[in-house]
Amino acid sequence: MIPEADLDALLAGRHADPFSRLGLHADDAGRLWVRALLPGAATVALVDTASGKRLVDLGERRPGFFEAQVPRRKHRFDYRLAVSWAGGGEGASSIASEGLYADPYAFYPQLEERELQAFAEGRNFRPWLSLGAHVVQHGDVRGVRFAVWAPNARRVSVVGNFNNWDGRRHPMRLRHQAGVWEIFVPHATEGDLYKFEIVNGVGALLPLKADPYARQAQLRPDNASVVAPLPEPAKLPRQRERANQRHAPISVYEVHAASWRRGVAGDFPTWDELAAELPAYAVDMGFTHVQLMPVTEHPFDGSWGYQTLGLYAPSARFGPPEGFARLVKACHDAGLGLLLDWVPAHFPMDAHGLAEFDGTRLYEYADPKEGFHRDWNTLIYNFARTEVREFLIGSALYWIERWGVDGLRVDAVASMLYRDYSRPAGEWIPNLRGGRENLEAISMLREMNEHVGEISGAVTVAEESTSFPGVSSPTYAGGLGFHYKWNMGWMNDTLRYMAEDPINRRWHHDKMTFGLIYAFSENFMLPISHDEVVHGKGSMLAKMPGDDWQKFANLRAYYGFMWGHPGKKLLFMGQEFAQRNEWNHAEGLPWGLLEDDRHAGVQRLVRDLNKLYREHSALHRLDCEAGGFEWISAHDAEHSIYAWVRRDGTGRMVVVVVNMTPVPREGYSLGVPDGVTAWKEALNTDSAYYGGSNMGNGVAAAGLPVQAQPAHGRRLSITINLPPLATLFFTPI
Fold first, then answer.
1. How far apart are the C-alpha atoms of 398 and 42, rounded to whole Å?
2. Exposure pattern of 439-475 as b/e (b: 16+ CB <10 Å)?
3. By the 8 A CB rule, do 199 and 157 touch?
4. What residues form DSSP beta bridges with 704?
5. Exactly one of 211, 401, 411, 686 is catalytic; which is it?
6. Contact between residue 225 and residue 243 where contact means Cβ atoms under 8 Å apart
7. 132-169: b or e for each residue (b if 16 or more CB lie within 10 Å)?
8. Distance between CA atoms of 67 and 49, rounded to whole angstroms?
9. How many CB atoms lie within 10 A of CB 429?
10. Contact yes or no for 726/684 (Cβ under 8 A)
11. 122: left (phi > 0), else alpha (psi -120 to 50), else beta?
C-alpha cells in the first residue's frame, strides 16, 4: 500500500510523479499491486487481457482511489480495468462503452529521448511532430498522446470530455531534460475536447490552458482544443515554384476571409464556400496570388486575426480544418498562389492562452520593457528562448509543409527588429551590445527564412516599415532572408501625393519619384493593404480629391501608376471596385456597387492592368532590378507629368506616361527609346470602358509613328494625346 501522504497528493491533484504510484507496481517484497484513480467509479476490477479472466476486485481505499494486490503474479502483464460508474453512467462521454479500459499508467514514456534532447537544445524545428495531441496506436489500444512544454509547473494534467474535465484522472509524466509533460490516454479519439490543467511552481492552480500546438480549436467564445489529425505532407505544385520567383508577375489580392462575402447563413463563410468562389474571382480579376489575413485561431473577431493564440490551427470560424485543405487545393487548381498572414511578433493575454503558461513568463519576455507591447496591449514572444523559437519556426514550416500554402506574409516585422519600437526613452532595454536592435528576433527571423528557403518554391514576405538593411537579402549576405518586402515608404509617399488637390501637386512632385531612389535596394512589393482603409483613413476612393468624376479618375490614374511602377503588387479586397466607405470587418463587401458603371469600370481596369502586367515581361521580369527601369521624364513638376520605360532585359519595352492634373494635353511630345518605329496605346485609364472621358490615341494598326523630333533629352519622340488624370501604357509595334 502506498503511503497516506502519496495518496493525499494524488487525490488533491498535486502528486509530482503519478506514474510512480498509479498502474502496476511491485513493492519491496516483489508483490505486484495495481492502483487506479477513477473519481466517479463505483467498482473497479483487474482483467488479464490474454485470458480475459477477472483477477481481482480493487478495493476503494478512498473515494475515487482503488487498489489491490495482484494474486499469483510476479511479473508485469497486459491488463485492463473493468469499471462500472456510479449511477450507471460512463463518467466520460467518449471512453469505450463496454467499461473495459486500458490503463494510461500501464504505458511507457511516449516521446523518444532524441526528440526531447533536440527540442531542449533548439534543434527541433518541427516540434508539432512531438508536442500537441496525436492519435496513436499501441498494440490493440488506440488513443491520444498528449504532450506539452511546461518546465516550471509542479503538476500538469490533461483534462477533457474523455475524463469529465477532472485533473485527477490523467496527471502527466514530466520528462525532465526538456520540461515536457506527456501521457497516452487510451480510448481518447479525434474530435475530443481538451485543455491542460496546470499547478504552478508554488502550488497554485492556473486557469485551464489551451494547447499551444493544437491543430483545431472550438469556435469562440469557447476555447478548448480539439484532437485533430496531423495533415499529410503537401508539396507545392511545380508550377507554383516558378510563379513565386522574383522574375514572375506577382499581383496579390489581400482578403479578409470573414468579410469578403458573408456565408449563406449571413455569418462567416465556410472554407468550402470560399473555395467555391474566391479562387475563381481572383483568377478572373487577373491576380496571381490570394493573401489571407490571419486565419490562425484567435479569440477576438475585432483583431482581424492579428492577435492569435492558435498558431497551428485554422480558425473554427470557417469550419473544420479539412475544409482549409480544400481551399488551398482550389487555389492551386485554379493556378492561383495562396499566402497566409502570419503573426510571430506578439500574442494576446487571454487567460486560456500562452500568457504565464506554466505560472511563469514562459513564452513572453519576463520584463515588461521587453515583453509588453503598448500599442496592441499584447505580449511579445521571448525570441531568445530556444523552445519559443522552435514554436514559431515550427509554425511557419507547418503551414507550408503540411497545408501546402505558397508562403507567409510576416506581420509587424519592424516591431520585432527594434527593442525601442513604439517605446519612449527609458522604457526599453538595450541589447547586449548596447544597441536598439533585437538581436534574438533578428536571429530567429533569419533562421526561419533559412528553413523556409529549403522548401522549393516557398516564399516569405516582410511587412517592414523601416529602412532596416537587407530585409530581402540572403542570410549568407547578412540579410534577413525574406523573399520580398512591403514598400511602406512608397505607399505612404504616393498616397500623400494623391490626397493633394491637383493644383498643388507641383509642390509635391518628388513624393511620386522618391521611391525610385531606393526601389531596387530590396525585392519590393507595393502594398495598398487593409491598413490604408481603416481607423478613419477612409476608402481609397475617399482619399482622392475633387468631385466624384475626379475621384474616380484620380484612383484609376493611381492604379495605373502603381501597375507601371517597379515592384510586385498587392491590393486589398474592395479596392478593386472603388469601395466608397471604409472596410468593416463585420460586414461583407458592398458588391452591389458594381451595378454602378463607375465602380464596374474600376474593376474592369484592375482586371486589365493585371492582364497587361502578366502578358508583358517588361512590366514584371525586372521588377526588383535597376536594369528594368529608366526615366523619360521625372522632373516635370509644373505639369505633374511622369514618364518612364520598363524593360525586361531582352529588348522588350513598355513606356508609361502619367498625367496627374485634370488638364488634357493634346499633341504632347513624348521622348521614346531608340529601336522602335511605332508605338501603340496598350492601356489608357481614361478609356470610357473604365469610366473615363475616352480621350486617347486610338487603336489603329499602324500605331503612333516615331518621329525624329527630340523630346525629353531623346532624339526620337511620338506625339500623343494625354488625357486628364490618367495613366497610359505604350508598347512597340
1. 45
2. ebbbebbbbbbebbbebebbbbbbbbbeebebbbbbb
3. no
4. 679
5. 411
6. no
7. bbbbeeeeebebbbbbbbbbbbbbbbbbbbbbbbbbbb
8. 18
9. 13
10. yes
11. left
Terminal C-alpha separation, the chain: 96
d(CA 384, CA 439): 9
Band of the pLDDT at 123, cuts 50, 70, 90?
very high
Provide the strand spans (E) within 123-259. Answer: 132-138, 141-149, 155-160, 173-175, 180-186, 193-199, 225-226, 251-255
Asked if 358 and 95 count as a contact pair (C-beta separation under 8 A), the reply is: no
Query: Please, what's the largest Cα pairwise distance for the chain?
Result: 111
Q: Which amino acid is at 395?
A: S
Nearest to 491 by CA among 577, 409, 567: 567
Phi, psi of 729 (to 5 degrees): -115, 135
The shares of helix, strand and coil residues in the chain, as percent rounded to the nearest 5, are: 30, 25, 45
Helix (H, G, I), strand (E, B) or coil at 409: strand
- pLDDT the model gives residue 96: 40
- The torsion angles phi and psi of 149, rounded to 5 degrees, stand at -90, 115
C-beta separation of 613 from 623 below 8 A: no
> CA-to-CA distance for 412 and 410, rounded, in angstroms?
7
Query: What is the reported pLDDT for 263?
Result: 87
Residue type for position 385: R
User: Which of 299, 351, 251, 320 is closest to 576 using CA atoms?
Assistant: 251
Q: Which of 463, 493, 608, 623 is an active site residue? A: 463
Beta bridge partners of 641: 636, 659
What whole-number distance in Å separates Cα of residue 64 and Cα of residue 167? 13
From 194, 219, 217, 229, select the one nearest 94 (Cα to Cα).
194
Number of alpha carbons in the 13 Å side-chain half-sphere of residue 669: 11
566 closest CA partner among 508, 529, 526: 526
Residue at 226: amino acid letter: V
Only one residue has cell 531596387, namely 520
Number of other CB atoms surrounding residue 693 within 10 Å: 16
Question: By three-state DSSP, how is residue 670 classified?
Answer: strand
Instruction: Categorize the per-residue pLDDT at 495 as very low, low, confident or very high, splitting at 50, 70 and 90.
Output: very high
Query: Are 459 and 240 within 8 A, CB to CB?
Result: no
274 touches 318 (CB < 8 A): yes
CA distance 97 to 246: 58
User: What is the distance between the alpha carbons of residues 41 and 59, in angstroms, rounded to a whole number?
Assistant: 12
Under 8 Å CB-to-CB from 398, ≥6 apart: which residues?
Answer: 126, 128, 312
pTM listed for this prediction: 0.94
CA 105 to CA 89: how far, in whole Å?
23
pLDDT, residue 668, reads 97
Kindly report the number of other CB atoms within 10 A of residue 343's CB atom: 25
Measured in residues, the chain has a length of 733
Give the DSSP H or E segment for 356. Answer: none
Nearest to 35 by CA among 20, 52, 50: 20
Q: What is the pLDDT of residue 87?
A: 67
- HSE toward the beta carbon, residue 227, CA cutoff 13 A: 26
Question: Is 411 marked active-site?
Answer: yes
Alpha carbon distance 592, 713 (integer Å): 48
Query: Torsion angle, CA of 170/352/293/303, rounded to 10 degrees?
Result: 170
- The residues that bridge with 659 in the sheet, in sequence order, are 641, 726
The answer to whether the peptide bond before residue 221 is cis (omega within 30 degrees of 0) is: yes
29-43, 78-92, 187-201, 589-603: which has the minimum mean pLDDT? 78-92
